[in-house]
Amino acid sequence: MNADQILLGYPEKPSNPALLHRRFFPSKVGGQPAWLNPQHLPPLSDLQCPRCRTPMTFILQVYASLDASSCFHRTIFLFGCQPCGNQFVAMRNQLPRDNAFYPFEPPDTDNVSGVGDEEEDEFKSLLCPVCGLPKGDGEAGSSPDTSPAAKEGRRGDDKAALIPRGHRRCRRVSEDGMLVGVFEEYELEVDEEGEEDADKQGDYSHEMELKRRYDEVAKDNPDATLDESEQQFFEEFAPPSCRNDDTFQTFLKRVRTNPGHVLRYAYEGAPLWFASAQQLEDGPPDCDTCGSPRVFEFQVQPELIHLLKLDKLEWGILAVYTCSANCGGEGYVKEFVYRQPEPM
Ligand SMILES: [Zn+2]
Ligand SMILES: [Zn+2]
Ligand SMILES: [Zn+2]
Question: Where is the Programmed cell death protein 2 C-terminal domain (predicted)?
Fold first, then answer.
């Protein structure tokens, strides 16, 4: 993705999941994060919910190079807290073209073998096998497991004792099924934002008429429905308080012009606000690390909630702002996420 353009990200089932490996620099939704710098991972403390301290869950990552030589490879990662549902964290990471981890030349997407070597095993041992986030201090797995069960396993079968253990949360995930360790994985296909249909400018009556008819029919006959996409559209995007909100109408129109996208990328641009209420009034806070101003980079659309069946997470839009100086060298730097809630 490049500056000066508005780009949209469409989720697609990956044609070849191997291409979502970090060495192909993917933009993707769900699955485990494809960490760009595999050596200096962020500490788990940066990825724990600021409110409840639970390790967050990976939502998506956007590969977004910039012109600066230090940003030849550059990825923004987004995480959310499942128990809280309204806490989000973004991390930025970048590498120059000449770096210790990836070849100078672009990867050959026809050749996906070579993944799974020793280096990869070592890298994986740093991560929770369930969610793909770094294991942390005070979490089992960062040190040898000395529980009686593990000792037992070690005597019986050396391999069993070596199975890497994940976060306490993630072990619970597999036991009670209340939370998920990873969301369903999709590749993000990038396309330019299409023009709005000039004839439709300012005209919203079609959708409102559909809605009126839907309400009427549904009242008399609970089984009658509009076709699936229409119904989904109303359930997803039309909270009652928004029906007369111009900002919401604009949002809806732009979204409907390019149906199905979950990401809107507009580097140094502005968010397309979901509604007039609860926009970020005073702009984003300056970078915590270097003090430079932050710029808008992308927003995640509510369509993603529907796609991933996220009954735990909620937003109108998530607007991600990043440090204009792209500070932090080759390390991971925490960035700012503004959650504009969906009005009730
Ligand atoms: Zn939380
Ligand atoms: Zn985990
Ligand atoms: Zn900075």
Answer: 245-340
Which residue do the tokens 């996906």 mark?
A: 112
User: What's the gap in Å between 191 CA and the centre of ligand 1?
Assistant: 33
What's the rounded Cα separation, in Å, for the pair 193 and 39?
A: 36
Ligand 1 centroid–CA 169 distance in Å is 12
Rounded to 10 degrees, the C-alpha dihedral 145/149/151/154 comes to -100
**Cα 231 to Cα 225: distance, rounded to the nearest angstrom:** 7
Region 311-319: mean pLDDT is: 93
Looking at the predicted structure, is the pLDDT value of residue 125 above 50? yes
Cα dihedral across residues 14, 19, 22, 25: positive or negative? negative
Of all helices (H) and strands (E), which one includes residue 327?
none
Tokens 């967050």 — which residue? 56
CB atoms within 10 A of CB 55: 27
Ligand nearest the Cα atom of residue 294 = 3
Q: Can you say whether the dihedral through the CA atoms of 52, 57, 59, 62 is positive or negative?
A: positive
Q: What's the 34 CA to ligand 2 centre distance in angstroms?
A: 14
| Residues flanking ion ligand 3, Cβ below 5 Å | 287, 289-290, 292, 323, 325, 327
Q: How far is the centre of ligand 3, averaged over its atoms, from the C-alpha of 97 (Å)?
A: 20
Reported pTM:
0.82
